[in-house]
Amino acid sequence: MVDTSGSRITGTLMVQGTTSDAGKSLCVTALCRILKRKGISVAPFKPQNMALNSAVTNDGGEIGRAQALQAEACGLALSTDFNPVLLKPNSDMTSQVIINGQAVSELDARRFGNIKELAFEQVLAAFERLKQQYDVVIVEGAGSPAEVNLRKNDIANMGFAEAVDCPVILISDIDRGGVFAHLTGTVNVLSASEQARIKGFLINKFRGRIELLQDGVDWLEEHAEKPVLGVLPYIMDLRLDAEDGINRALHAGNLVNPDQKSVRIKIPVLPRISNHTDFEPLMNHPNVILEYIEAGGDLAGADLIILPGSKSVQADLNYLREQGFDHQIKRHLRYGGKLLGICGGFQMLGDTLSDPDHIEGHQGSSEGLGLLSMTTTLAPSKQLKNVRGSTVDSDTEVSVVGYEIHCGISRGAALDRPLFLLCDQNEQQYTDGACSEDDQIWGTYVHGLFDKAEMMSHILSWVSGKTFHSEDWQVVRERELDRLADIYEQHIDLNKLFEIIQSH
Predict the structure, then answer these.
(1) Hey, do 11-234 and 248-473 end up sharing a CATH topology, with the first three levels equal?
(2) Are 276 and 58 in contact (CB under 8 A)?
(3) Residue limits of the CobB/CobQ-like glutamine amidotransferase domain (predicted)?
(4) For residue 111, how many other CB atoms are within 10 A of its CB?
């Protein structure tokens, strides 16, 4: 556990950003992989995350997808300590609150300030546990510390940094424009102690000749009296899990040369679409063109339509009908197309959806698409499972690995034709999913279906009748983590960074 100069590295570093999507998550991911490669015991930490993409820990908890990727960069099994508070928006005005991996409450916009009272002690306790276990903890902020309206109850940025007395570096996205204003403006709205806590800047997503930026870098260092630790290039075609929003760059790249791809997949973008990281391996497949279809779009021409997961299934089902996607799906089936429903999308395929405890709102119950003979009832306890297993009725047994995150319990005759025989982390065995009698429709609660090459090839063969070679997404992810770390090592001053980490 030594750095390149031979001295042991211990301490904490927090990465904050001038805006959302400034590059905090990938920065923490890169630094974690760099430190791991140097033999340093390192763990990621995000006090509070807000995202609909999540992952399941080995002990049946739930954390943000970005922290799962960061843990992988460290070579660690997933732990709820990496992300003790996760907020999952149910609507524009309410969020489910997950503390230490379990849903405990729901907050509306008027009560959001209560999050500090509700969760800060748990945040600090999780951080202290990590400090005891690892030499270095790399902390990711949330949004921006310049959101002055949120400072009173902040547990995610300077409120956390001040409480634990850790140094901060500030990253900003130059691709948006105004990077010097973003950096200096953020510093200027902070208190004196918070300003002193910022030990350096990172400029992210720079394109062009670095010498043309140098005058600005010199001015920034003189004006702010803080070093610029690195200028990071715009990284093209990075194939890593998106933290929350759809990976638009990967999507755009996938749409190139459609005539050279033999399987066309379309996915309607639901207002509360969740865990769409399920589909990033498909966008990396050389034989697949995957299109996300927005409001008013057309599902025609697809070989496979996928109904994705949803945080608010009945509301998103209403949206499908409002857009006329339900009629398009039925026309697709009449012409022999295939349909796959995952998690909330699977629930939509049944006859009815019931929410007697108003977990997702006040609708109570609604009609499903009526494509599978089953009913789903939402229950307060959430199913959080890491699963493994195999197909039930395929010609050759195909293995499946993934995870489940859902509140619904489905019952009905359709489940007598299951897709998978699964085993969860507690060694409980059960069947999952359903297959229509004509084999056109599959439904499952398992996320991460396409991560393994064997299952991805199996599903693509079901859709097209052809044989495909696929690559494990884990192999791609590891390769991309090292590529990201290589770029950061090349463009940041690691010696200064290590000094900052050890400064407190």
Answers:
(1) yes
(2) no
(3) 264-454
(4) 12
* Residues in the chain, pLDDT under 50: 1-6
What 389-395 contacts at long range (C-beta under 8 Å, 24+ apart), as own/partner pairs, is 389/420, 389/421, 389/422, 389/423, 389/432, 390/420, 390/421, 391/419, 391/420, 391/421, 391/458, 392/418, 392/419, 392/420, 392/421, 392/431, 393/417, 393/435, 394/458
Give DSSP secondary structure letters for 196-251.
HHEEEEEEEEE-S-GGGTHHHHHHHHHHHT--EEEEEEPPTT--S--SSS--HHHH
CATH of 248-473 among 1.10.10.10, 3.40.50.880, 3.40.50.1370, 3.60.20.10: 3.40.50.880
Q: Is 447 part of the annotated catalytic residue set?
A: yes
User: Distance (Å, rounded) from C-alpha 450 to C-alpha 432?
Assistant: 16
Q: What are phi and psi of 370, to 5 degrees?
A: 70, 30
Q: What is the pLDDT of residue 4?
A: 46
Helix or strand (DSSP H, E) at 61: none
Where do the H-state alpha helices sit in 237-371? 248-254, 280-283, 313-322, 325-334, 344-348
Count Cβ atoms within 10 A of the Cβ of residue 192 and give its class: 0-12 exposed, 13-18 middle, 19 or more buried: exposed
CB 324 within 8 A of CB 332: no
Can you give the pLDDT at residue 359?
79
Residue in 32, 74, 343, 407 annotated catalytic? 343
Decide if 343 is catalytic.
yes
pTM: 0.90
Tokens 């009913």 sit on residue: 375
pLDDT digits (tens, 9 = 90+) for 300-313: 999 999 999 998 99
Which tokens in the block code for residue 196?
Answer: 């002193």
The CATH code that applies to domain 11-234 is: 3.40.50.300
Element containing residue 111 per DSSP (H, E)? none
For 166, residues 6+ apart whose C-beta sits below 8 A from its C-beta are 11, 12, 13, 14, 139, 197, 504
Catalytic residue among 285, 332, 447, 458: 447
* Cα–Cα distance for residue pair 412/391, rounded to 1 Å: 20
Q: How many CA atoms lie within 13 A of 82 on its CB side?
A: 31
User: Which residue shows structure tokens 């208190």?
Assistant: 191
- Residue 6: its pLDDT value, please? 47
